[in-house]
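notes to self, project folder thing:

trying the whole complex as one job this time. last attempt i did each chain seperately and stitching them together was a nightmare. two parts in total, labels are on each line so i dont mix them up again. if this works i'll redo the older ones the same way
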Amino acid sequence: MGVQTRLALAFGTLGALFLAVAVRLVEVQLVEHERWAARAEQITVRELVRALPRGRLYDRHGRLLALDVPAVSVALDNVNMTKPELLERLLQERLGLSAEEARRRVYRPKYFTWLARQLDPQVAEGLKQEAEALGIRGLLFLPGWKRAYPQGSLASNVLGFVGLDGQGLEGIELAFDDVLRGRPERRELVLGADGTVLEERVLEPGRPGADLYLTLDARIQRVAERAVRRGVERARAKGGFAVVLDPRTGEVLALAQDKIYDLNAFERSRPEERVNWAIARVFEPGSTFKPFALLAALEAGVVALDERVNGDSPVVIAGHPFRNAEQIDYGPVTPTEILQHSINTGMIRIALRLGEERLYAFLKKLGFGEETGIELPGEVAGWLPPLERWSKLEIGAIPIGQGVAVTGVQLAARYAALANGGRLVRPRIVARVVPPPDALHTPSAPGTERNASASPDDVGRGTPIASWPNLQALTRMLVAVVEDGTGVRAQIPGFAIAGKSGTGQKAVPGRGYVRGKYTSLFAGFFPADEPRWVILVVLDEPRAWPPYGGLHAAPVFKEIAEGIIELMHLRPTR
Amino acid sequence: MGRRGPSRSQPASLAGPAGASGMDFPLLGLAVALTLLGLVMVASAGQPLGPGRLFLRQLVAALLGLALLLGLARLDHSRLLTYDGALLLVAVGLTLLTFVPALAPDGLWLELGPLSFQPTELLKLALIVFLAASLTRKRERGELERFTTGALPCYALWAVLSLIAVLQPDFALVVVYGAIVAFMLFMAGAPLRHLVGPALAALPLMGLLLWLAPYRRERLLAYLNPFADPQGSGYHVLQSLTALGSGGLLGRGLGAGREKWLYLPSAYNDFIVAVIGEEMGLLGTLLVVGLFVALGWRGWRIARRAPDAFGFLLASGITFALSFQAAINLGVAVGALPVTGLTLPFVSYGGSSLVVSLAMVGLLLSVARAGAERGPAPTPTVASLRAKGGTVGCHSTGPGGRGRHRRPLLPGLGAP
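result (full assembly):
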């Protein structure tokens, strides 16, 4: 074999090797490209989700009720951790875990174990630094947000709260979750094996949630909560609540109840505290219902304002006697006196003139037995028995507020119609939604507002429920109730206050009315000549005797009204 | 087997671009191109270790290597015939110094003050020079025909060097040395049975060596099935293939590679072609293959036109060594060969390797210049070599055996 041949053979072999390499390169880089590219993505690309803050809650004047503050959650990659003994001790010292709990969380065959949710960033930073100093690896620090309620327990029944995963669980936080919730930003990171960020790309721009301005007035809410709490204590009631709303617009200014809880520690709340009593619980309105029945009679013309009606007790219908409180015989009484002294028999005798159909039609027109549509979760409709199911007794019971069930918001909203010239208003709790400034994605300028609750004609829909003179007359009667009637304890010198007391009997499902269980009520509005505030006070099962609304609920009404007068710097009108 | 009888002689007019200066510019261009590509890619692949750190060292080595290349290109290659033994002794001596912990903390790099270099790189070159010289002498004396005087001493040398390599430990060198020895024996015209026989005998020994060291065994098993343990032994190859494959036709762009960010081990070194593939795509990798093929072709051409037998063996040995190592390195990168730890000449990070590779090209240029000046010697044939007698072993450097002056390789064939 010649040297040339050997040379050719040797270099031919090398050439073949290079050719083989080239062929393989084409295979790997062209034919299998997709597959290897996918594997590279899998190894190097991580998706990062960054939570953006939830919208804030404000009261009608911009007082902050809820906001998101930065917080860091800490988790542990148990599989990749180092120095578990030191970590155990660190968790006890820094996070206050018990020795047993620390041990349980450290020794798990998992890639992810929560150690602490929503820590103060400074606490998390301290933990991080100490862990680094000790050479502990495997801790994961996940920045996020924590809901904070600067006013503590104020309006806890309205605001509700947010779970650890950022989901609204009660109240406004639940009802407006989709509005309040921020859209997380999704980013794609290309990472080196040591965590170096090589490329970064926003997949989906995030957006903070929209802010919500409530119709609530935090100061009035505070006044009302205090008044209710004191009223409940005085009457030794099981509970109580109050509704304050603006009769002109239906805007709810306060939804106060005695059962509240610290929103910043919602996990310690009790179920009955989380209930919004004014919208989720029904009660019999008792005598606070009489103005509606009387207004129906006035509208039908079956009774005149100066007409006298028999006020003696009892009225017997189908063998059942309806009595006055304490069985007093009042003799002939005017409609004003019927309201002033809450005379059941007089009211029933007028209702009998009116008849079942007209009474029912009027109450139906007012929307009793229907949800008001307030933007809060858990509203119930109450109960107005349909006419075809009325027995002989309903015409006696319903005018005095028995055999019907209402919610606080419902009753307050109907009193608003009495106060505003007969327009039915839908109670509302959200004044406006303010989307975050986001010039990039919405053409509208920052700070533009949109109305949360439908169109303006939603306020005062339909025709007035009654004629202006009759409404005026009814207001004068209600003023008389406070000036010289069952409502005297709601009097405030210098102010004309219209109101009506009520004492509802409590029915227990399956047992009917239960002796000794009452609801003590007072509903009204002021100033009577130009009403701006409707206030309803409900005390549940007062144990003080007698349980009359004029005795227990009226002073709470008065305290709230006085608070409003002071807050608004109202001048006495007389 | 093979063609016998008078071989073709090359007309002087085909001497090619090695013009008046005698410089083979295409070869110089290829070496510079590969070096520049290496500098760029080392800069890119070295990014995770801090900008410029590896690049600067590589740049210094490149400048040093180029200076050496130009110096050696001017040298008359036949003068090496005087120093081949000394060169080998120095290289072996330096390599042995790496066993002194104070001088070589990690056993591979000799650290002399601020300089550190890998003596085994020099040893590769020294081995080629020595074998070329020694086999030339043997051929003149006709010692190649007998196994004991021809191939055996060379195998003995290989065994000694392999022992050093295994102790280092750098098993790949055993293969490289073996390939060089076998190739040069083959080129010198040793009888094929002297090559095939020992190769068959050595196979079980090689297998044993392979199996004895666990890391080598793992590498081999990983080569057979890289997906069996993607986080372990198969990791290198998988990451290399991922880098190459994700690069596609055009790559992610220079500097935009991802795998080099500590996913791909030795990205700037053994697997630099994976970085090239990821950042410059198939075009980049084929460019590398093309440059090495061109380099090999140019080296082959120079060997064929070598003015004497020493030049022929030197040129073909150098060309083979560079091409072989490149082929192995590329073969590893595409997963066709088990992981060896061999670098890609000129391109991979490593000053010693770069300096020696450029020096090799310098010697190639020297042979090319001599070939252009004197015209190519008619290629020696085995038959013509058989006419010569004498027995001088590979290690024999006796005074009588040294060719201090150049003699015509073959009787009756002088330079034109």
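what i see at first glance: Residues 439-460 of chain A have pLDDT under 50 and may be disordered.
need to look closer tmrw
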